Amino acid sequence: ALRLLFKMLSSCSKDGDPRPGQPYKGGNFCAFLPDNREGQKTAMLLKKAFEHGLTFQIKSCNGEERVTWGLIPHRTSWDGGKARNGYPDAQYLREVCTVL
């Protein structure tokens, strides 16, 4: 199994964010992929998306700005199925590659 870890630091939002200049709270994020050829290929595509700033976004939650997942779907659990962002989800790798 491949485990992707993202540590997003707290900072201030920039132009183009919902509230430029406002502080936002970061966080730790984890996603999972199968450790096979297709999973490794997907990991490389997700890395490129992260490097281009497409993985996360800043949202207002209860009056506080915070980093959240963006529009690219990630599986954040090994179980629970698609309804809980987990596996099993036989279509996930195909779906995420289409988005990427």
TrEMBL record:
Reaction equations catalysed: S-ubiquitinyl-[E2 ubiquitin-conjugating enzyme]-L-cysteine + [acceptor protein]-L-lysine = [E2 ubiquitin-conjugating enzyme]-L-cysteine + N(6)-ubiquitinyl-[acceptor protein]-L-lysine
One GO location term (cellular component): cytoplasm
Location within or outside the cell: Cytoplasm
Broad enzyme group: transferase
Chief location bin: cytoplasm
An annotated Gene Ontology molecular function: ligase activity
Origin superkingdom: Eukaryota
Pathway recorded for this protein: Protein modification; protein ubiquitination
Record GO biological process: Notch signaling pathway; protein ubiquitination
Keywords: Cytoplasm, Ligase, Metal-binding, Transferase, Zinc, Zinc-finger
Pfam families: DTC
EC number(s) given by UniProt: 2.3.2.27
Deltex C-terminal domain location: 4-97
KW Metal-binding (keyword) present: yes
UniProt record similarity statement: Belongs to the Deltex family.
PANTHER family: DELTEX-RELATED (PTHR12622)
Protein's recorded name: E3 ubiquitin-protein ligase
Organism this protein belongs to: Oceanodroma tethys (Wedge-rumped storm-petrel)
Gene: Dtx3l_1
